[in-house]
Amino acid sequence: MRALIVDPDAPARLVLGEAPEPVPAAGQAVVEVRHSSLNSAELYFAGRAEPGTVLGFDAAGVVVEPAADGTGPAAGARVVTFGDGGGWAERRAVDVIDLAVVPDAVDLADAATLPVAAGTALRALWQAGPIAGRRVLVTGASGGVGSFAVQLAAIGGAHVIASVGSAASGEGLAELGANEVVLGPENVGGPVDVVIDMVGGAQLAAAYGLLTPGGSLQSIGWASGEAAVLPPGSTLGRRSPTSITSVYNGAGVTDRPAQLKALLDLVATGRLRPRVSWRGPWDRVAEAADALAGRRLQGKAVLDVTPEPSR
Ligand SMILES: NC(=O)c1ccc[n+]([C@@H]2O[C@H](COP(=O)([O-])OP(=O)(O)OC[C@H]3O[C@@H](n4cnc5c(N)ncnc54)[C@H](OP(=O)(O)O)[C@@H]3O)[C@@H](O)[C@H]2O)c1
């Protein structure tokens, strides 16, 4: 079958080539992939993986072979899936615990943006606890995870402060629900209860310093690649402790169906809008990767894998 494979000589080290057909385990369905999306971690892995590796966490498509143990949806079901690689292929075998049926009202291309980016944003907000009426700062707010975090925090009733690296990055975030858009945490005008951090480094340190007693910083990513240096005493002497908590939404997460269903329901009702600023056929993956690495995307890039039959 065709797949995007790692090739050290190709632009972005990715090229459309051939890979073996997936061999499903008993609890896995085989899905014909229609769309996938690009995540920054995939650029990291493309730079390091063995030649021939098939990457791709997110994929949406149609079940062509239900799981042999009788679990999961029947053949023909439209599904969105998460896997630790294998999504950038015409077919993927996926654990039924890592998929959800896509409602008719949701486009499969939109569904393909959800598992990693929206799922991680949702998990971070769940970990942060109640957010209604609280001040939530989202760093890296223009990115894949950030664009969903802004929307989900607004849906949860928070006062949302979106932090971006440039005025251009901040465009459109107010329409997604941001009450304030700032150029970096150092420009936030007052304390915050929750930080959803995608950037790490100096932004993490500055954002941590903004926390109210009992507040939490949910550390999703480290896009800056910088060390974070906290001023002496930052972590001391608070009767209601503040915390830095890591967020993980990768392989082995057990509540993924519930997570995906919650997100799909929000998209189906129009409350959550996947923000796609690059879309194209999967053989143009290097172009999408270049835009992602160059911080020129707002939200997500979607790769079209196989044509979707008209509905
Ligand atoms: N924990 C998990 O399970 C999990 C899941 C998904 C993602 N992640 C991680 O979370 C981070 C964000 O992921 P994403 O998919 O949202 O990435 P993304 O789309 O590239 O967004 C990252 C954002 O960070 C900002 N940024 C600030 N400094 C940057 C720098 N030096 N280089 C690049 N971007 C910088 C950029 O906004 P401005 O240009 O406006 O500054 C950019 O929009 C990544 O580190 C990713 O690996 C972790």
Automatic annotation (TrEMBL):
Pfam annotation, one family: ADH_zinc_N_2
Segments forming domain Enoyl reductase (ER): 9-303
UniProt keywords, alphabetically: NADP, Oxidoreductase
Annotated PANTHER family: QUINONE OXIDOREDUCTASE PIG3, QUINONE OXIDOREDUCTASE PIG3-RELATED
Name of the protein described by the UniProt record: Zinc-binding dehydrogenase
